Amino acid sequence: MSIYKIKINFEEAGKESVELPISQNESVLDVCLDNGIELQHNCGGVCGCSTCHVYVNQGMDNLQEISDKEEDFIDRAVNPRITSRLGCQCVVVDGDIEVTLPDQNQFLGH
User: Fold this and answer.
1) Which of 71, 72, 11 is nearest to 38 (CA)?
2) Quick one: which of 15, 36, 90, 96 has the fewest CB in 10 Å?
3) pLDDT digits over 26-77, tens only?
4) Strand pairing partners for 21?
């Protein structure tokens, strides 16, 4: 199994970027949870909501294709962009990636 690198940036003020290993077929959400990085996932990571929304800065071609279902949920996310993906569906297939996590404070209390 191949191991790649993921660089995680944070919109939240005062949080430093981190670089972590990510295995082939592993999702951004899994890496965050395994490393104590807060990324909301109200549906439990099954592509049933939009709370694990992230922005892919680099390596979009190294990710699993986006599904119609994922696109529908991204449309409901807070501040979606052309580079938006859901962390639970953001699965690395080949190569390094870099993502930015939106400020998670917008979800507190939800």
Assistant:
1) 11
2) 36
3) 999 999 999 999 999 999 999 999 999 999 999 999 999 999 999 999 999 9
4) 5
The pTM assigned to this predicted structure is 0.93
> What whole-number distance in Å separates Cα of residue 55 and Cα of residue 68?
18
Q: Which residues contact 8 (CB under 8 A, 6 or more apart)?
A: 17, 18, 19, 20, 28, 31, 32, 37, 98, 99, 100, 101
**Half-sphere exposure of residue 58: CA atoms within 13 angstroms, side-chain side:** 9
Residue 110's pLDDT is what? 41
35 secondary structure, DSSP code: T
Q: Residue 19: CA atoms inside 13 Å, Cβ hemisphere, count?
A: 5
Among 60, 64, 68, residue whose Cα is nearest residue 100: 60
